[in-house]
Amino acid sequence: MAKGALLFWNCKLNFIVVNSISALKDIRACIVDLDGTLIDTLGDFEVALNAMMAELGRPSVNSSDIARWVGKGSEHLIKTVLLNSFKGTEALGDAAVEELMPAAWKHYQATYLRINGQHSAVFHGAQEGLAALQARGLPLACLTNKPLDFALPLLEAKGLSGYFSHVFGGDSFPRKKPDPLPLIETCKALGTAPFQTLMIGDSANDAQAARAAGCPVVLTTYGYNHGEPVEAVDADGWVSSLVDIEAWMGETAGRNWKS
Ligand SMILES: O=C(O)COP(=O)(O)O
Ligand SMILES: [Mg+2]
Fold first, then answer.
1. Residues 131 and 26 in one domain
2. Tens digit of pLDDT for each residue in 73-131?
3. Residue 22: DSSP 8-state
4. Most Cβ neighbours (<10 Å): which of 43, 65, 67, 216?
5. ipTM score
6. Ligand 1 pocket, residue 73 CB under 6 Å
7. Which residues are responsible for catalysis (predicted)?
8. What is the pTM of this model?
9. Are 247 and 157 in a shared domain?
Protein backbone atom coordinates (compact mmCIF):
# COMPACT_ATOMS: atom_id res chain seq x y z
CA MET A 1 0.00 0.00 0.00
CA ALA A 2 1.49 3.35 -0.99
CA LYS A 3 2.68 5.79 1.67
CA GLY A 4 0.18 8.62 1.98
CA ALA A 5 -2.76 6.43 0.93
CA LEU A 6 -6.07 7.52 2.43
CA LEU A 7 -8.11 5.26 4.69
CA PHE A 8 -11.90 5.58 4.93
CA TRP A 9 -14.10 3.59 7.30
CA ASN A 10 -17.84 3.44 6.85
CA CYS A 11 -20.43 2.91 9.57
CA LYS A 12 -20.50 -0.86 8.93
CA LEU A 13 -16.75 -1.00 9.55
CA ASN A 14 -15.93 -2.03 6.02
CA PHE A 15 -12.87 -0.17 4.90
CA ILE A 16 -11.54 1.44 1.76
CA VAL A 17 -7.97 2.47 1.09
CA VAL A 18 -7.32 4.86 -1.75
CA ASN A 19 -4.06 5.65 -3.50
CA SER A 20 -5.47 7.68 -6.33
CA ILE A 21 -8.79 9.48 -6.04
CA SER A 22 -8.36 11.14 -9.45
CA ALA A 23 -8.24 7.68 -11.10
CA LEU A 24 -11.86 7.16 -10.06
CA LYS A 25 -13.34 10.45 -11.22
CA ASP A 26 -14.47 9.61 -14.75
CA ILE A 27 -15.61 6.02 -14.40
CA ARG A 28 -18.25 5.11 -17.02
CA ALA A 29 -18.21 1.29 -16.71
CA CYS A 30 -16.77 -1.51 -14.57
CA ILE A 31 -15.12 -4.86 -15.29
CA VAL A 32 -15.53 -7.31 -12.43
CA ASP A 33 -13.46 -10.44 -11.78
CA LEU A 34 -15.28 -13.58 -10.62
CA ASP A 35 -13.30 -16.04 -8.43
CA GLY A 36 -12.17 -14.41 -5.20
CA THR A 37 -13.97 -11.15 -6.01
CA LEU A 38 -17.66 -12.02 -6.45
CA ILE A 39 -17.77 -15.65 -5.35
CA ASP A 40 -15.75 -17.77 -2.93
CA THR A 41 -15.26 -20.78 -5.20
CA LEU A 42 -12.52 -22.63 -3.31
CA GLY A 43 -14.96 -25.40 -2.30
CA ASP A 44 -15.86 -26.13 -5.95
CA PHE A 45 -12.19 -26.17 -6.96
CA GLU A 46 -11.39 -28.53 -4.10
CA VAL A 47 -14.14 -31.02 -4.98
CA ALA A 48 -13.39 -31.00 -8.74
CA LEU A 49 -9.61 -31.23 -8.31
CA ASN A 50 -9.82 -34.03 -5.76
CA ALA A 51 -12.24 -36.05 -7.92
CA MET A 52 -9.70 -35.64 -10.75
CA MET A 53 -6.78 -36.66 -8.51
CA ALA A 54 -8.67 -39.76 -7.31
CA GLU A 55 -9.38 -40.78 -10.94
CA LEU A 56 -5.68 -40.36 -11.77
CA GLY A 57 -4.53 -42.24 -8.63
CA ARG A 58 -2.81 -39.14 -7.22
CA PRO A 59 -2.97 -37.78 -3.64
CA SER A 60 -5.54 -35.16 -2.68
CA VAL A 61 -4.90 -31.41 -2.57
CA ASN A 62 -5.96 -28.97 0.18
CA SER A 63 -7.80 -25.69 -0.16
CA SER A 64 -4.99 -23.47 1.16
CA ASP A 65 -2.72 -24.67 -1.66
CA ILE A 66 -5.56 -24.20 -4.16
CA ALA A 67 -6.00 -20.61 -2.91
CA ARG A 68 -2.34 -19.92 -3.77
CA TRP A 69 -2.56 -21.49 -7.24
CA VAL A 70 -5.96 -20.35 -8.50
CA GLY A 71 -6.42 -17.34 -10.80
CA LYS A 72 -4.52 -18.12 -13.98
CA GLY A 73 -7.16 -20.38 -15.51
CA SER A 74 -8.03 -24.09 -15.28
CA GLU A 75 -5.14 -25.49 -17.33
CA HIS A 76 -2.56 -23.67 -15.20
CA LEU A 77 -4.32 -24.80 -11.99
CA ILE A 78 -4.47 -28.47 -13.03
CA LYS A 79 -0.81 -28.47 -14.12
CA THR A 80 0.30 -26.81 -10.88
CA VAL A 81 -1.67 -29.30 -8.78
CA LEU A 82 -0.17 -32.26 -10.68
CA LEU A 83 3.39 -30.87 -10.54
CA ASN A 84 3.06 -30.41 -6.76
CA SER A 85 1.56 -33.83 -6.05
CA PHE A 86 3.91 -36.21 -4.24
CA LYS A 87 3.50 -39.92 -3.49
CA GLY A 88 6.10 -40.22 -0.75
CA THR A 89 9.11 -38.66 -2.47
CA GLU A 90 7.88 -39.50 -5.99
CA ALA A 91 6.81 -36.42 -7.97
CA LEU A 92 5.60 -35.93 -11.53
CA GLY A 93 7.89 -34.19 -14.01
CA ASP A 94 6.80 -31.83 -16.78
CA ALA A 95 6.60 -34.58 -19.40
CA ALA A 96 4.48 -36.86 -17.19
CA VAL A 97 2.13 -33.95 -16.41
CA GLU A 98 1.75 -33.11 -20.13
CA GLU A 99 0.88 -36.72 -20.79
CA LEU A 100 -1.77 -36.74 -18.04
CA MET A 101 -3.34 -33.44 -19.09
CA PRO A 102 -6.04 -34.71 -21.53
CA ALA A 103 -7.39 -37.25 -19.00
CA ALA A 104 -6.97 -34.76 -16.13
CA TRP A 105 -8.94 -32.07 -17.96
CA LYS A 106 -11.71 -34.52 -18.90
CA HIS A 107 -12.20 -35.65 -15.27
CA TYR A 108 -11.88 -32.12 -13.88
CA GLN A 109 -14.34 -30.61 -16.35
CA ALA A 110 -16.92 -33.39 -15.86
CA THR A 111 -16.94 -32.95 -12.07
CA TYR A 112 -16.75 -29.15 -12.17
CA LEU A 113 -19.77 -28.87 -14.46
CA ARG A 114 -21.72 -31.30 -12.27
CA ILE A 115 -21.04 -29.59 -8.92
CA ASN A 116 -20.55 -25.97 -10.17
CA GLY A 117 -21.70 -23.58 -7.43
CA GLN A 118 -22.68 -26.25 -4.88
CA HIS A 119 -19.62 -25.57 -2.69
CA SER A 120 -19.34 -21.84 -3.39
CA ALA A 121 -20.86 -18.71 -1.87
CA VAL A 122 -21.27 -15.09 -2.98
CA PHE A 123 -19.01 -12.87 -0.86
CA HIS A 124 -20.65 -10.58 1.68
CA GLY A 125 -21.64 -7.31 -0.02
CA ALA A 126 -20.86 -8.47 -3.58
CA GLN A 127 -24.43 -8.62 -4.86
CA GLU A 128 -25.32 -5.33 -3.14
CA GLY A 129 -22.16 -3.78 -4.63
CA LEU A 130 -23.15 -4.79 -8.16
CA ALA A 131 -26.68 -3.49 -7.58
CA ALA A 132 -25.33 -0.11 -6.43
CA LEU A 133 -23.02 0.22 -9.46
CA GLN A 134 -25.87 -0.77 -11.78
CA ALA A 135 -28.21 1.72 -10.08
CA ARG A 136 -25.60 4.40 -10.79
CA GLY A 137 -26.08 3.59 -14.49
CA LEU A 138 -22.70 1.94 -15.01
CA PRO A 139 -22.60 -0.94 -17.51
CA LEU A 140 -20.88 -3.96 -15.96
CA ALA A 141 -18.90 -6.79 -17.55
CA CYS A 142 -17.66 -9.90 -15.78
CA LEU A 143 -14.16 -10.94 -16.91
CA THR A 144 -12.72 -14.13 -15.42
CA ASN A 145 -9.92 -16.53 -16.27
CA LYS A 146 -12.42 -19.35 -15.60
CA PRO A 147 -13.69 -21.12 -18.73
CA LEU A 148 -16.86 -19.42 -19.98
CA ASP A 149 -18.81 -22.71 -19.71
CA PHE A 150 -18.10 -22.70 -15.96
CA ALA A 151 -18.63 -18.97 -15.42
CA LEU A 152 -22.05 -18.56 -17.08
CA PRO A 153 -23.97 -21.25 -15.11
CA LEU A 154 -22.23 -20.20 -11.88
CA LEU A 155 -23.31 -16.55 -12.23
CA GLU A 156 -26.82 -17.76 -13.10
CA ALA A 157 -27.01 -20.14 -10.13
CA LYS A 158 -25.88 -17.41 -7.74
CA GLY A 159 -28.32 -14.81 -9.09
CA LEU A 160 -25.61 -12.49 -10.47
CA SER A 161 -26.10 -12.86 -14.27
CA GLY A 162 -28.59 -10.04 -14.55
CA TYR A 163 -26.03 -7.43 -13.51
CA PHE A 164 -23.77 -8.01 -16.51
CA SER A 165 -24.14 -6.83 -20.10
CA HIS A 166 -21.18 -9.06 -21.03
CA VAL A 167 -19.47 -12.10 -19.52
CA PHE A 168 -16.06 -13.23 -20.83
CA GLY A 169 -14.04 -16.24 -19.71
CA GLY A 170 -10.43 -17.38 -19.88
CA ASP A 171 -11.17 -18.98 -23.26
CA SER A 172 -12.99 -15.97 -24.76
CA PHE A 173 -9.77 -14.31 -26.02
CA PRO A 174 -6.40 -15.62 -27.26
CA ARG A 175 -4.69 -14.57 -23.99
CA LYS A 176 -5.78 -14.44 -20.33
CA LYS A 177 -5.17 -11.91 -17.53
CA PRO A 178 -2.51 -10.70 -16.55
CA ASP A 179 -2.20 -9.98 -20.29
CA PRO A 180 -4.04 -6.69 -21.02
CA LEU A 181 -5.80 -8.09 -24.11
CA PRO A 182 -8.95 -9.37 -22.33
CA LEU A 183 -9.42 -5.98 -20.63
CA ILE A 184 -8.88 -4.04 -23.85
CA GLU A 185 -11.41 -6.27 -25.65
CA THR A 186 -13.89 -5.96 -22.77
CA CYS A 187 -13.60 -2.15 -22.85
CA LYS A 188 -14.39 -2.30 -26.58
CA ALA A 189 -17.48 -4.43 -25.86
CA LEU A 190 -18.57 -1.96 -23.16
CA GLY A 191 -17.92 1.00 -25.47
CA THR A 192 -15.71 2.83 -22.95
CA ALA A 193 -12.07 3.88 -23.03
CA PRO A 194 -9.77 2.01 -20.62
CA PHE A 195 -9.19 5.12 -18.43
CA GLN A 196 -12.98 5.29 -17.91
CA THR A 197 -13.33 1.60 -17.08
CA LEU A 198 -12.69 0.45 -13.51
CA MET A 199 -11.29 -3.05 -13.02
CA ILE A 200 -12.46 -4.63 -9.76
CA GLY A 201 -10.49 -7.73 -8.85
CA ASP A 202 -8.74 -9.68 -6.12
CA SER A 203 -5.27 -10.43 -7.42
CA ALA A 204 -2.07 -9.22 -9.05
CA ASN A 205 -3.40 -10.78 -12.28
CA ASP A 206 -6.24 -8.27 -12.38
CA ALA A 207 -4.04 -5.35 -11.35
CA GLN A 208 -1.23 -6.07 -13.83
CA ALA A 209 -3.71 -6.51 -16.66
CA ALA A 210 -5.45 -3.27 -15.68
CA ARG A 211 -2.23 -1.26 -15.45
CA ALA A 212 -1.07 -2.56 -18.85
CA ALA A 213 -4.47 -1.81 -20.43
CA GLY A 214 -4.67 1.66 -18.85
CA CYS A 215 -7.67 0.91 -16.60
CA PRO A 216 -7.89 2.12 -12.98
CA VAL A 217 -8.03 -0.81 -10.58
CA VAL A 218 -9.47 -1.53 -7.15
CA LEU A 219 -8.73 -4.79 -5.33
CA THR A 220 -10.62 -6.64 -2.63
CA THR A 221 -8.74 -7.48 0.56
CA TYR A 222 -10.36 -10.93 0.90
CA GLY A 223 -9.68 -12.93 -2.30
CA TYR A 224 -6.92 -15.16 -3.63
CA ASN A 225 -3.70 -13.34 -4.42
CA HIS A 226 -1.32 -16.27 -4.95
CA GLY A 227 -0.54 -16.38 -1.20
CA GLU A 228 0.91 -12.84 -1.26
CA PRO A 229 -0.44 -9.76 0.60
CA VAL A 230 -2.81 -7.99 -1.80
CA GLU A 231 -1.92 -4.61 -0.27
CA ALA A 232 1.56 -4.95 -1.81
CA VAL A 233 0.12 -5.04 -5.35
CA ASP A 234 0.22 -1.85 -7.44
CA ALA A 235 -3.43 -0.65 -7.45
CA ASP A 236 -5.53 2.51 -7.02
CA GLY A 237 -7.31 1.24 -3.94
CA TRP A 238 -8.54 -1.67 -1.84
CA VAL A 239 -11.97 -2.48 -0.42
CA SER A 240 -13.08 -4.97 2.21
CA SER A 241 -16.52 -5.24 0.53
CA LEU A 242 -17.80 -4.44 -2.99
CA VAL A 243 -20.76 -2.72 -1.37
CA ASP A 244 -18.52 0.32 -0.76
CA ILE A 245 -17.21 0.94 -4.25
CA GLU A 246 -20.16 2.95 -5.52
CA ALA A 247 -20.19 5.10 -2.38
CA TRP A 248 -16.46 5.63 -2.87
CA MET A 249 -17.06 7.01 -6.36
CA GLY A 250 -19.59 9.48 -4.93
CA GLU A 251 -17.25 10.10 -2.05
CA THR A 252 -14.75 11.93 -4.23
CA ALA A 253 -16.95 14.99 -3.59
CA GLY A 254 -17.68 15.96 0.03
CA ARG A 255 -15.65 13.08 1.42
CA ASN A 256 -14.78 12.10 4.94
CA TRP A 257 -11.26 10.79 4.57
CA LYS A 258 -8.73 10.01 7.27
CA SER A 259 -5.00 9.73 6.53
O1 LIG B 1 -8.31 -18.98 -12.68
C2 LIG B 1 -9.54 -19.11 -12.58
O3 LIG B 1 -10.13 -20.17 -12.88
C4 LIG B 1 -10.41 -17.98 -12.08
O5 LIG B 1 -9.83 -16.76 -12.06
P6 LIG B 1 -10.52 -15.31 -11.89
O7 LIG B 1 -10.01 -14.84 -10.59
O8 LIG B 1 -10.00 -14.56 -13.09
O9 LIG B 1 -12.03 -15.43 -11.89
MG1 LIG C 1 -9.91 -13.57 -9.02
1. yes
2. 999 999 999 999 987 778 889 999 999 999 999 999 999 999 999 999 999 999 999 99
3. G
4. 216
5. 0.98
6. yes
7. 33 (nucleophile)
8. 0.90
9. yes
**Is residue 35 part of an annotated ligand binding site?**
yes
- Residue 68's SS3 state is helix
10 neighbors 131 (Cβ within 8 angstroms): no
Alpha-helix residue ranges (DSSP H) falling in 116-201: 126-135, 148-157, 181-190
Q: What is the domain-level CATH number for residue 237?
A: 3.40.50.1000
DSSP 24: G
Same domain? For 88 and 126 the reply is: no
From the CA of 254, how far away is ligand 2's center (Å)? 32
Q: What is the pLDDT of residues 31-68, one digit of tens each?
A: 999 999 999 999 999 999 999 999 999 999 999 999 99
Q: According to the annotation, is 234 in a ligand binding site?
A: no
**Count of the separate structural domains present in the chain:** 2
Residues 106 and 133 in one domain: no
- Which atom of ligand 1 is the closest one to the Cα of 74? 3
Tell me which residue range forms the domain holding 96. Answer: 42-115
End position of a domain, from candidates 115, 147, 167: 115
> Residue type for 85, please?
S
